[in-house]
Amino acid sequence: MTTSVSIKDLSLNFGNVKVLESLDLEVAQGEFIVLLGPSGCGKSTLLNCIAGLLDVSDGQIFISGKNVTWDEPKDRGIGMVFQSYALYPQMTVEKNLSFGLRVARMPKAEIEARVKRASEILQIEPLLQRKPVELSGGQRQRVAIGRALVRDVDVFLFDEPLSNLDAKLRNDLRIEIKRLHARLKNTMIYVTHDQIEAMTLADRIAIMKNGVIQQLADPHTIYNKPVNLFVAGFIGSPSMNFIKGDLSGTTLSVDGQANIPLGNYQFANQTNGASILGIRPEHIAVGEEAKKMPVQMESEIEIVEPMGADTVAWTKIAGQSLTFRAAAEVHLEPGQKVLIGFDPGRGSVFNAASGNRI
Amino acid sequence: MTTEAISSGLSAGALSGPRGPKPKSLTIGRIGVYAFLILSALFFLMPLWVMIVTSLKTMPEIREGHLFNWPALLTFDPWLKAWDTACTGRDCNGLKPGFWNSVKITALSVPVSIVIAMINGYALSFWKYKGSEFLFGVLVFGAFVPYQVVIYPLIIGLSKVGLFATLPGIVIVHTIFGMPILTLLYRNFFASLPIELFKAGRVDGAGFWGIFFRIMLPMSVPITIVAIILQVTGIWNDFLFGTVFAGRENMPMTVQLNNIVTTTTGIREYNVNMAATILTAAVPLVVYFISGKWFVRGIAAGAVKG
Question: Residue B186: is it exposed, middle or buried by C-beta count within 10 angstroms (0-12/13-18/19+)?
Fold first, then answer.
């Protein structure tokens, strides 16, 4: 597979504040990359650098093999979709779509053909003569996507495109973006702080914190084999349980109250000492199921949160709080004593000092 | 008691209780507020009333001293005289030439100052460069410099380039002094627009002027109306710059009015003076009445995030 976007040793400072630091990222042709992270992690800044809307302090950006580090946004072969839609309010939908093409002085027939194609793909043909104020949020975002579409570019950049929409519309448009990607097969770089969007859309997710990519991998790996505590805690809802203890060999001793054998956990880099065992709530079994698990223990339920599809329960083991997810049919109530069990092989073990997976 | 009785009792209570919009009652406090407002309005309208009735009286009637009375003998001669034949020194052409001079000065200064301020504000909001914030600070500081301080250097500067006491000279002066406040107005307006609009324009390939003319200009109609009102009234009412920089040929209406009113030869014609004053003040008043709604709308448009 050829490389579509390549970022080499990119740094960006605002005065003394380092927003991005020697960042490298290779995006393959046709890949859907999601930049995910909390507010202020530099993900939008990175996207703006790729778009050419921010000048970089150091490093290079290549798009389709061409060094575009000093190029204007229009010459980079990108289309961009913004969170606030950024439609030109005085122009009709049609004029909004064709603005970039008219600026580039493209022949009228070609403009018409491209606007027609984009509006067909996005099903906004009946809206072409309307002004943005007359459109709903979902329709506006569709027009904004259309504006990127007519440019006929290799790379699409999305800057939190769904964050301004309500929950239902967000789900609908998410599917549409996925469908669009399947149809167009363009390279797409998508910034979001919503982990569901990241998990569902991405071929690969880049999780960022303080301007540094923590982990770049496919959603499955990110979810099941997080490289450090930050990634483990950021992805998943309810978030991963962290059990603090002391590792010696393959046994995690929790405050001397319990010993958890990590027999079938595959250590990559076993280090004794203060460690943290991460277990996802859905990897903890309860009742009969728990009896099949390598690690089992009794615990008392504190709070029960019925979610409809399943139930989340809060409990404590060896003094540390623990949540687990049970099927909705399992009857749970506060004060009840239950047997819970899990397989450490599905968990993650981190060194407490470095926060890295071991 | 049966359940039926209880439920019917409840529903009866619900029907008889308060329902629908709360009735408005005229309380003593409210009457007091209205009385105060009406009295204040009358108080502030009093000078205008005196001016109007005086301008419609003949001189003998004015001398009788009944300031507030409606004229016994209605006359429009003072108005005609004020406009056409009132004397300022040796010339007896009334306010007429001053009016046309003011029209010329205003018609030139308003668009020039607004266009410059608009470009300033746009550049300072979207095309920030090293030192642009400092420059903006200096510009805004200009709004607080007393005019009198810079008049002398300006006279020297303009006369060196041969523009002192000319029409272009006075237009330049008005443009310079309008710049701080107008730039502030436009910069704040553009800063309230979503920055993503500007970014989208850049991705679409529009440059400095492309974004300005095709995206920003169509959006700044409301704020431009505010700017026009500010400038028209400000420049029309200006006296100081008109006296100093316009020169004899381009004396604006305000200066002419002053000359008519302060003329010391012969008797003081109060009715003519009043008529001349109303005529001079009429233009900004008309501008306010016509555009008041737009003015409020424009201010609001600048205040809320777009």
Answer: buried
Chain A residues in contact with B204 by the CB 8 A cut-off are 74, 99-100, 103, 147, 151
CATH 1.10.3720.10 residue window(s) in chain B: 96-303
- The complex's ipTM works out to 0.86
What is the residue whose two structure tokens read 């009896």? A291
| A5 in contact with chain B, both atoms CB, cutoff 8 A | no
> Are A74 and B205 inside 8 Å of each other by CB?
yes
What is the tens place of the pLDDT at every residue in B248-272? 889 999 999 998 888 766 788 889 9
The tens digit of pLDDT for each residue in B53-80 reads 999 999 888 888 888 889 988 899 999 9
Cβ of B218 within 8 Å of Cβ of A72? The answer is no
A88 shares contact with chain B (CB less than 8 Å): yes
| Token pair listed for B168 | 């272009």
Interval B194-222: pLDDT, tens: 899 999 999 999 999 999 999 999 889 88
For domain B96-303, which CATH number applies: 3.40.50.980, 3.30.1540.10, 1.10.3720.10, 3.40.50.1980?
Answer: 1.10.3720.10
Domains of chain A: 3-232 (3.40.50.300), 239-351 (2.40.50.140)
Contact call for A53 and B204, based on CB within 8 A: no
Interface check A143 vs B, CB under 8 A: no
- CA-nearest of A278, A275, A273, A250 to A351 is A275
**Which residues are registered as beta bridge partners of A259?**
A253
